[in-house]
TrEMBL record:
Gene3D superfamilies: Serralysin-like metalloprotease, C-terminal
GO molecular function, one term: calcium ion binding
Protein name in the entry: Alkaline phosphatase
Lineage: Bacteria, Pseudomonadati, Pseudomonadota, Alphaproteobacteria, Rhodobacterales
Length: 214
């Protein structure tokens, strides 16, 4: 419906969807809708409640939305658990602006995070974790088959946790980016890429693949 509508960015929460049935590519499989996280959050909030004149909330909807970001966890869980929706949007966790840590360790599903903090902690699922300024960010990926992407500074990137080796950890992909990084894959068959000349790459356990220069 809004596939490749790159300039579209509106709140659709007031739209009557009570009789909606097939929405398989409403936002496009690659998220080419141009919808911001704020508009998508507001849209989900509107669709998760009954508006005047609506008799029911539609059930079993496949919203696709790969590549669209959301942070409205309440609306997401209501629609997916109570009404059987499938929403494939990326989840972006927010954190207080005065906090140095973004902690997703208690999340019940994979997260897609980009955080400009001193520490970014992943969940037990297949996360995508990207660092940014300030420099010297520490990222423990946690369990799951994580993708961890560094920025242009010296980061410390762990496939598992910072202080413990996790035998249940799956193979991670860790890319250092610029800067003098320290990368530790932990358990699992990891892919470790330094991307700069002065990185330290430690495979840990499993059959790991090293690429110092990217």
């Amino acid at each position: 419906m809004f596939f490749e509508a790159s300039s579209f960015d509106q709140d659709l929460g007031a739209r009557d969807i009570s009789s909606m049935e097939d929405t398989t590519d409403i936002f496009g499989n690659r998220g080419d809708s141009g919808m911001s996280m704020e508009s998508f959050d507001a849209t989900l909030a509107g669709w998760a409640r009954l508006a005047p004149g609506e008799a029911r909330i539609a059930t079993g909807i496949d919203l696709a939305g790969v590549g669209v970001e959301l942070s409205n966890d309440d609306a997401f869980h209501m629609l997916t658990t109570q009404y059987g929706w499938t929403i494939r949007a990326d989840y972006r966790l927010s954190a207080p602006s005065d906090s140095d840590v973004v902690d997703a360790s208690n999340e019940t599903r994979a997260v897609n995070l980009m955080a400009f903090r001193q520490m970014l902690i992943g969940s037990d699922f297949d996360d995508i974790l990207r660092t940014g300024r300030p420099p010297e960010t520490t990222v423990p990926g946690g369990l799951g088959q994580d993708t961890i992407i560094g920025d242009y500074f010296g980061e410390t990137l762990y496939g598992g946790l910072r202080d413990d080796d996790l035998e249940d950890d799956l193979g991670d992909r860790i890319y250092g980016g610029g800067g003098n990084d320290y990368i530790d894959g932990g358990y699992g068959n990891d892919e470790l890429r330094g991307d700069a000349l002065n990185d330290t790459l430690i495979g840990g356990f499993g059959g790991d693949v090293f690429d110092l220069f990217g």
